[in-house]
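Hey L., structure's done. Input below.
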Amino acid sequence: MMSEHIVTSYEDELKFIVRRISEMGGQAERMVEQAVAALTRGDAGLAQTVVSEDVLLDASQRELDERAILTIAKRQPMAVDLREIVGAIRISNDLERIGDLAKNIAKRVLAVQDHPHPLQLVRGIEHLSELALTQLKEVLDAYAARDHDRAIAVREGDDDIDAMYTSIFRELLTYMMEDPRNITACTHLLFSAKNIERIGDHATNIAETVYYINTGEQLGLERPKDDRTTSVSQPDEGAAAPLR
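Output:
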């Protein structure tokens, strides 16, 4: 009877960890969506909501880490269970960083709001965020289903986000060079775009962790992590194509 009680208690601890990752994932998604909406609409109230939400996400990460470490100390799990717990710690860290990046975007809302910026740039930011959010949603679904093939697909999709970010980077440089009055707004939009690109990187990190949890193997290091903007040359005058 005691043994059965211990097993049930252990299963409850593992379920708590999995459930908390799901809750943190939903919260991180919502923060990114709201931060980009606040940026594109100039909604200071919504931006402040995102900033406030980050405190809650940080607290969730600390609670999960503490429970996971305690479970390891008490239960000394092995094989799949140990990978499950270690993987949850890694994923919670990525989700917490995604929350920080959403908060950073939200903090730029007032700065961008005070300076006019071309509509196509805002649309580019929205498109980039849609790509990143799709990646995040897909990888969280892969985690819930323990589907490592789906996780691999998310990892391979990171190139699309990198390409879109490079396009936005080039476009922003063009506007700054054409008119110095665009520099302030474009700089804030550039940092926001970089934050979104980093959200895609964290979704890829989670995909690699899902693969590790499921298979016990680490994916190879062939994933490109270089910043393609380092190879962007000065645009020809008037030659930049608008974002679609």
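The mean pLDDT is 87. Residues 2-231 form a domain with the Methane Monooxygenase Hydroxylase; Chain G, domain 1 fold (CATH 1.20.58.220).

-- N.
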